[in-house]
From TrEMBL:
Assembly, per entry: Homodimer.
Keywords: Amino-acid biosynthesis, Branched-chain amino acid biosynthesis, Cytoplasm, Leucine biosynthesis, Manganese, Metal-binding, Transferase
UniProt protein name: 2-isopropylmalate synthase
SMART domains: LeuA_dimer (SM00917)
GO BP term, pick one: L-leucine biosynthetic process
Organism the protein comes from: Thioflexithrix psekupsensis
One matching Pfam family: HMGL-like
Gene3D superfamilies: 1.10.238.260, 3.30.160.270, Aldolase class I (3.20.20.70)
Record-annotated Pyruvate carboxyltransferase domain positions: 5-267
InterPro entries in alphabetical order: 2-IPM_HCS-like, 2-isopropylmalate_synth_dimer, AIPM/Hcit_synth_CS, Aldolase_TIM, LeuA/HCS_post-cat, LeuA_allosteric_dom_sf, LeuA_bact_synth, PYR_CT
């Protein structure tokens, strides 16, 4: 038998309490719409008494959302509750959430109230909220550090007053999973009218235990979890919605409840919240981090290619990624390399060609963090076109100094011999080409020089294209390397090698960017 676990999203309220994460009304509406698509059960849209702006935002959200409950937070004060009710006017399913602290330290040092008065104020607040809606949630703030007997007394009283959801927050992230689970179990079994309300938890991540504590509570009878997208929230944040939802779904053997979340919307929500708040998602973040479904090491890639579940407990597509990612890098093996080439429709006719390409790939991967498809294309083109090399680059050194003409020192392998020369040029590429010409003396003229960065980032591979003409014959040459000067030298030599091949009448191909004759 499974029952429903309600997902209460507080990205727009507790998430917004994260320093620097304030949202405008329009931003809240965009996130609320995404949360509705995600099919959360409750959206806590803000704290209407906090400011006119937040009142407006909650009101706006309440009036655009149809498929889930919209909630506003309020202290246990008449004014706050009235404001929350006014902001929620128009909502299809409004919930008023009122709270007051129940721990000795909060009651004595912050509220400066006696416990009896705190219970009285909570009861009064719930009754007032019930005048506006029958969907009233009460939170015992800092329940994690409250005394059990007092908490039981408080909960019994507020349920009697009309609260339909009882939220047990670990406000300062102090609890550990086993103790928090026990607390929930004790409350549910000891409070006489506990069956009249849904027990909820709201965990903070100060010790990195928010998700673990929430799940422990679920195992002990909690049926609502309060959480946020990407774990946004006050200080170290709240329990991450995506982690809670996927843990419940993936471990159906452990949990006897289910959410009704459309998990394929998780990535959309995560990106939206990250873009709006400017809080990036760390790459290794569970579920929504860029690396959450990426494999780089050869042994893992080999395993996943043979049987996905060897290294994946969830499907990337189920949370909204297009697919898992096989990252080619220095830890990748031959099987993953071959699988990538196959996907790109690249075939080698001989095992030697494949071996040469794999060796070049490993060399490149040592210099560059990630090898993208375009890197592979460039690398393979290089491998295939370097078959009959009359001229081969062995060494290149270029010195550029302010106020001086750059000098290039080039060592080539020509007809079985190493030859070195230096030349100056108007720029570093020009100096490189002049040095090559000083050794080769081809008599060819440069028609086009083009540079593309094949991939992004400062460690991107540069792909250089050159077009040479000699006695009416025109050839193109390409070279790629993380060093643009080395790529230029390779491209120039690639063209020279072709121009010296008797049967080749090369057809010029159009390059896509930066076509120019002037070399830097
Ligand atoms: C654990 C949580 O996340 S709680 C929610 C936190 N969210 C916010 O605080 C929302 C933003 N807050 C605000 O804009 C403001 O703090 C307001 C509008 C709510 C209140 O502002 P002010 O009236 O200026 O009070 P201030 O913030 O300085 O102090 C809070 C007061 O509320 C009291 N208070 C705190 N919690 C509660 C409560 N649940 N019920 C009743 N009173 C409370 C405090 O004891 C203090 O009272 P005092 O002024 O008599 O000492
Ligand atoms: C208002 C309550 C639910 C809260 O955010 C907390 O205690 O952390
Ligand atoms: Mg909180």
């Amino acid at each position: 038998m499974t029952d429903k676990l309600f997902i209460f999203d507080t990205t727009l309220r507790d998430g917004e309490q994260s320093p620097g994460a304030s949202m405008t009304k329009d931003e809240k509406i965009r996130i609320a719409r995404a949360l509705e698509k995600l099919r959360v059960d409750v959206i806590e849209a803000g704290f209407p008494a906090a400011s006119p702006g937040d009142f407006e935002a909650v009101h706006a959200v309440a009036n655009v959302i149809n498929d889930c409950s919209v909630c506003g937070l309020s202290r246990a004060l008449d004014h706050d509750i009235d404001q929350a009710a006014a902001a929620l006017k128009g909502a299809v399913s409004p919930r008023i959430h009122t709270f007051i602290a129940t721990s000795p330290i909060h009651m004595e040092m912050k509220l400066r109230m006696q416990p009896d008065s705190v219970v009285e104020q909570a009861v009064r607040a719930v009754k007032r909220a019930r005048q506006y809606t029958d969907n009233v949630e009460f939170s015992a703030e800092d329940a994690g550090r409250s005394e059990l007997d007092f908490l039981c007394r408080m909960i019994e009283a507020v349920i009697k007053a009309g609260a339909t959801t009882i939220n047990i927050p670990d406000t300062v992230g102090y609890k550990v999973p086993e103790r928090f689970g026990n607390l929930i179990h004790n409350l549910i079994t000891r409070v006489p009218n506990a069956d009249k309300a849904i027990f909820s938890v709201h965990c903070h991540n100060d010790l990195g235990l928010a998700v673990a504590n929430s799940l422990s509570a679920v195992l002990n009878g909690a049926r609502q979890v309060e959480c946020t997208i990407n774990g946004l929230g006050e200080r170290a944040g709240n329990a991450a919605l995506e982690e809670i939802v996927m843990a419940i779904r993936t471990r159906g053997d452990v949990f006897t409840c289910q959410t009704t979340i459309d998990t394929t919307q998780i990535i959309n929500c995560s990106r939206l919240v990250s873009n709006i708040t400017g809080f990036p998602v760390q790459p290794n973040k569970a579920i929504v981090g860029a690396n959450a479904f990426a494999h780089e090491s050869g042994i893992h890639q080999d395993g996943v290619l043979k049987h996905r579940q060897t290294y994946e407990i969830m499907r990337a597509e189920d949370v909204g990624w297009t697919a898992n990612r096989m990252v080619l890098g220095k830890h990748s093996g031959r099987n993953a390399f071959k699988a990538h080439l196959k996907r790109l429709n690249i075939e080698f006719t001989t095992e030697e060609e494949l071996n040469a390409a794999f060796a070049r790939f490993k060399e490149l991967a040592d210099k560059k963090h990630e090898i993208y498809d375009d890197d592979l294309q460039a690398l393979v083109t290089d491998t295939l076109s370097s078959e009959h090399e009359t001229y081969k680059l062995l060494y290149l050194r270029v010195i550029s100094e302010t106020g001086e003409l750059p000098t290039a020192q080039v060592t080539l392998f020509i007809g079985g011999e190493e030859k070195t020369v230096s030349a100056k040029g108007s720029g570093p590429v020009d100096a490189t080409f002049k040095a090559i010409e000083a050794l080769v003396n081809s008599g060819a003229s440069l028609l086009v020089y083009s540079v593309n960065n094949v991939t992004d980032g400062t460690d991107a591979q540069g792909e250089v294209g050159v077009r040479l003409e000699k006695e009416g014959r025109i050839v193109n040459g390409q070279g790629s390397d993380t060093d643009i000067l080395v790529a230029s030298a390779k491209a120039y030599l690639n063209a020279l090698n072709k121009i010296l091949t008797p049967l080749s009448r090369q057809h010029p191909q159009q390059h896509n960017t930066n076509l120019c004759k002037n070399v830097p």
